[in-house]
Design brief:
Blueprint (H helix, E strand, L loop, with lengths): L18 E2 L7 H10 L4 H6 L1 E6 L2 E2 L3 E3 L6 E2 L1 H13 L2 E6 L5 H6 L5 E2 L13 E9 L1 E6 L16 E5 L4 H12 L9 E5 L2 H9 L5 E5 H10 L4 E4 L6 E8 L3 H16 L2 H8 L10 E2 L5
Parallel strand pairs: 2-6, 2-7, 10-11, 10-12
Antiparallel strand pairs: 1-6, 3-4, 4-5, 8-14, 8-15, 9-12, 9-13
């Protein structure tokens, strides 16, 4: 299992989740009443707390702030806004990425919001509320970026990409369409265990290019503006989804309604735009991926 744009090595699992508060309307029974009125499952409404699974090794979506040691990022901002709309608090439960789907299926967490892609295969076991239009990007060292202006420029080159992500299949499809399947030299794919491993191959000169999510690249380009540069057009957009137990119509209905409210009042787009991700704005949908 993998997130569509999983890019960094997992961090050690922390024993205790970090609690981040999203203000509830009132306290005690009043807050519980609001949460119940918003359609949340009874257990969540009564507790007043939404347990959210995150693997905080995916900047800028979710990561550990070096100074405060808290989980921060775009997903944290969005889930706190979502919880405020629902009238509950948020408890971030830190987990390794491989634990996330099982955790929501077994009820250890109520939701997962951790850059996890909505795919038809995953829809067999969990439900998604899509909220973020992620894009894969080819990138290379900035000194080599001028070499890649059209798809055929990648033919015959070496390309590193994490085998654990959907980007690997997209790279194979790109090769068949533009290179090996079009009478040109095939792309030499180097599968890696993670996006960070792919970046290392690029830095060490062992490959010509790599693929990673646009959100990650924006983060790394901001940290080191002279190192990497995206090239060519984005790959097909695949949405990240808020994950919940399969068939839990109360939860999916409440989350979708709250997300649509955040869209209408401008909070959703404001958060993404402030983080340089206006490209990722989509219309929230239940299990929106169809193939």
């Amino acid at each position: 299992m993998s997130r569509f744009a999983r890019a960094l090595k997992p961090l050690p699992l922390l024993a205790v989740g970090t609690v981040l508060l999203a203000s509830a309307c009132g306290t005690g029974d009043a807050a519980s009443d609001k949460a119940a009125k918003n359609g949340l499952p009874a257990a969540v409404a009564q507790s007043g707390t939404l347990r959210v699974g995150m693997s905080p090794d995916f900047p800028p979506m979710e990561y550990i702030d070096e100074k405060t040691k808290n989980v921060v990022g775009v997903d944290v901002e969005l889930v706190n806004a979502l919880a405020k709309q629902l009238g509950v608090k948020v408890q971030i439960v830190q987990q390794s990425f491989d634990q996330l789907l099982n955790s929501v299926q077994t009820g250890r967490v109520d939701l997962v919001m951790s850059g996890l892609s909505d795919t038809v295969e995953r829809q067999k076991t969990v439900d998604f509320i899509d909220y973020f239009g992620s894009q894969g990007r080819f990138y290379t060292l900035q000194s080599n970026a001028a070499k890649y202006t059209e798809p055929s420029d990648v033919c015959g080159k070496t390309l590193a990409v994490s085998k654990k992500t959907d980007y690997y299949q997209q790279a194979e499809d790109f090769d068949k369409k533009n290179c090996s399947g079009a009478g040109k030299a095939a792309i030499e794919l180097l599968p890696t265990d993670s996006g960070s491993a792919a970046r290392l191959q690029l830095e060490q000169g062992r490959v010509d290019l790599a693929i990673q999510g646009a959100e990650n690249l924006a983060y790394f380009e901001k940290k080191d503006p002279s190192k990497y540069e995206s090239v060519l057009s984005p790959l097909k957009s695949t949405p990240f989804g808020i994950v919940m137990k399969k068939g839990d119509s109360n939860m999916s209905g409440a989350v979708l309604k709250a997300m649509n409210t955040l869209v209408r009042n401008g909070t959703y787009e404001k958060i993404l735009t402030a983080n340089g991700m206006k490209y990722a704005v989509i219309t929230p949908a239940l299990n929106g991926s169809k193939g």
